[in-house]
Design goal:
The two termini are about 25 Å apart. It is globular, with a radius of gyration of 18 Å. Helix 3 packs across helix 4 and helix 5 crosses helix 8. By secondary structure, the protein is mainly alpha-helical.
Length: about 190
């Protein structure tokens, strides 16, 4: 999605009255929530948890807008925040697993009413496996894999979001593809990928 900062009044978010700031913020939120939610899901966050992750992204973005004077690329800025929140989400998931007796997990998948129960079960199982593999990968490899393979960004765009050189993205992409394949095989016990 090609957007400019001024399309959503981000400059107004930093300087105008609270009413104007909230109006502009709502436009920013409405225009970008789906892409942030999709990136969270594609990074391995379960759909039942992706909305909470997305809300955290926009809460952080709102706070940071008051501190930031200029945003060159709004999408890259939001994607960067999203990837950091996803990394934090996975860190807390590990803590919750260790402390499972204190914090019971509540897994869930948003059902698709048009699909058959068999298709929904197969899709949920595939999604669970992909999420499990992505969650087990290092954040550096997972982020590159999600941005280049799932979000279908060019290496240059991914490099801008991750604030690393383009060649680093290319190198991590190869490593991430191999890491995903090996983890998938170990999980599935098969030689194919999703």
């Amino acid at each position: 999605m090609d957007v400019t900062v001024t399309d959503f009044g981000v400059s107004r978010l930093q300087s105008e009255s609270l009413v104007e700031r909230n109006r502009a913020w709502r436009l920013l939120y409405d225009a970008n929530f789906e892409s942030v939610y999709r990136l969270a899901c594609r990074s391995g966050v379960l759909p039942a948890e992706a909305e909470e992750v997305s809300q955290k992204v926009f809460a952080i973005a709102y706070r940071k807008l008051g501190e930031t004077h200029q945003i060159a690329n709004l999408n890259a800025w939001l994607y960067g925040i999203t990837l950091r929140v996803v990394r934090q989400h996975f860190r807390w998931q590990r803590v919750r697993r260790v402390k499972a007796w204190m914090l019971p997990e509540s897994p869930g998948v948003i059902p698709n009413e048009a699909a058959s129960p068999e298709a929904m079960a197969a899709s949920a199982e595939l999604q669970r496996k992909v999420s499990q593999v992505l969650a087990s990968m290092s954040a550096k490899l997972r982020n590159v894999l999600v941005l280049t393979e799932i979000e279908d960004l060019r290496p240059k765009e991914a490099a801008e979001i991750l604030a690393v050189p383009v060649n680093t993205v290319r190198s991590r992409r190869r490593l991430a593809q191999e890491d995903f394949r090996l983890r998938w095989q170990a999980l599935s016990g098969r030689d194919n990928t999703p």
